[in-house]
Structures are given as structure tokens and as C-alpha cells.
Amino acid sequence: MVIYLVTFSVFLLVIVAMAVGYIFQRKTVSGSCGGLDGIGIVKECDCPEPCDARKKREARAARQAEWKKNQII
Predict the structure, then answer these.
(1) Those residues with Cβ within 8 angstroms of residue 16's Cβ, 6 or more apart along the chain or in another chain
(2) Average per-residue pLDDT in the chain?
(3) Is the pLDDT of residue 28 over 80?
(4) SS3 of residue 4 by DSSP
(5) How is the chain split among helix, strand and coil, in percent rounded to 5?
(6) Is the dihedral of CA 15, 21, 23, 27 positive or negative?
């Protein structure tokens, strides 16, 4: 049991040290390669008009959100 507590303490200490380092650097969180922004893509889908499948997904999500909103009230 002592080994588990020591291991947990070491992991906790490392996480706290990383958090303090992050706070003092004041950098934004980013991926190792910069993500899509690194290659000039502003958003995941650069289409001027969404495709039919995306419109259907968005409509379904809006209906579900509306349904949930009405269920809460």
C-alpha cells in the first residue's frame, strides 16, 4: 500500500509542477504540430456552403436540442 501512495504522490507532484510551469509561461494550449492552423485552415470544413449531410446533422442536432429544452420546462 505504501508503494501505491508514494507512486500517487510522485504523479501528483509532477502534475502540479507541470501546471505551475504552464501558468508561468502563459502560452495557449496547442498540439505538437500546430494543428490545422499550422497549414492555414481556419476551420475543419473550408466549404462556403455545407454539404447536405452536414445540414441534416445540424438540423437533427437542433431538433434534439429543442426537444431537450422542451422536456426540461
Answers:
(1) none
(2) 80
(3) no
(4) helix
(5) 70, 0, 30
(6) negative
Supply 67's cell numbers: 426537444
What is the C-alpha separation between 8 and 27, in angstroms, rounded?
A: 27
The residues, ordered by sequence, that sit 6+ positions from 45 with a Cβ below 8 Å of its Cβ are 54
What does 6-33 look like in DSSP terms, one character per residue?
A: HHHHHHHHHHHHHHHHHHHHTPPP--SS
Q: How many CB atoms lie within 10 A of CB 36?
A: 13
d(CA 25, CA 35): 20
Examine the pLDDT at 4 and tell me if it is beyond 80: yes
Q: What is the pLDDT of residue 44?
A: 63
